[in-house]
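[Automated response] Your request has been received and processed.

Submitted sequence:
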Amino acid sequence: MHQTPPQKTFSVAVLDWYVTHARRLPWRSLPGEHPDPYHVWLSEIMLQQTTVATVGPYFRKFLDRWPNVVEMAAAPLDDILTAWAGLGYYARARNLHKCAITVAREHNGVFPGDMAELLALPGIGPYTAAAISAIAFGQPETVVDGNIERIISRLYRISTPLPAAKKEITEYAAKLTPRHRPGDYAQALMDIGAGICLPRNPKCSVCPVSGYCKAFATDDMESYPVKAPKKIKPTRRATIFWVQRPDGQVLIRRREEKGLLGGMMEFPSTDWAEDAVETEAAIEHLLQGQTPGLLRGVSVHKPVRHTFTHFHLELQPVAAQLVSADTLSIDGAIWVDPDEFDSYALPTLMIKVARAVLESSSS
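Generated structure:
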């Protein structure tokens, strides 16, 4: 028979399970060990909207280059962005650098453990602050990520759809959070969510707390969490240019610091808009009054599609050769050998464009 979970017996069951079943992750200390706040912070920022499998190699790479927050603070932003390339959501990388600088300058290179002080740092919101405070400093803060959200929703059969249910879920989660080993407890719930309380076909038979779960008792686990209907994502379009000099170098430029892919490098393009731009008009936009005779061998390549959180993007690559070595007059643009793209902060989207052009050119 189902019962509302008593905080102590629930957390004991979770923590006992964790001792035996904790995932071994590059940033995680073993159960009962004292974690490094720098490792916790770095991993939590990287894990926002990104999978554990993807983050692992990036985490190791960052630690190799910047073993502590002071060394990261001393690094140029461009080095951080280049190392981050491919991880997505690039505002995280900019805020990572800002946060490192703030911790180095205002906290003598030592992360604060207090929630209010953590929330004052760049790029740290309520979830990340709670995770750092609980995991790195043993404070009994309530940590609710996507996995824990799913567990609590099922535990109490919360019918309010997400995202409106977040406040209610957090309130229930807070009642279960123990004062003893809150960091291990939070990570244990993350692991249960990642490996047992799955979105589809949850493994309830091996769950250490299924006896407390209302959804398990009524066998409707997959109905929770309830989600609001998804909005239809609009599609934006643009023409993007692969302009190559006679020596083989390609034109790239830096995006503005704000907004999507802020501060990253890109191939020049028209604005991302609802309506596509004809190739001739796009070339005029690129040249901005300079003579069209600068370019030859113009070719249109297969469109590149990419999905962001709120919209789809369709880019039409147009490749062209510069007639002479004279550079185009484009603000912030530089010429780079394609073999050296790895040394620049090119996001995944731009790597897709490069691959589309190079593959079709060689076929």
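Summary generated for your ticket: The two ends are 66 Å apart (CA to CA). The chain has 14 helices and seven strands.
If you did not submit this request, please reply to this message.
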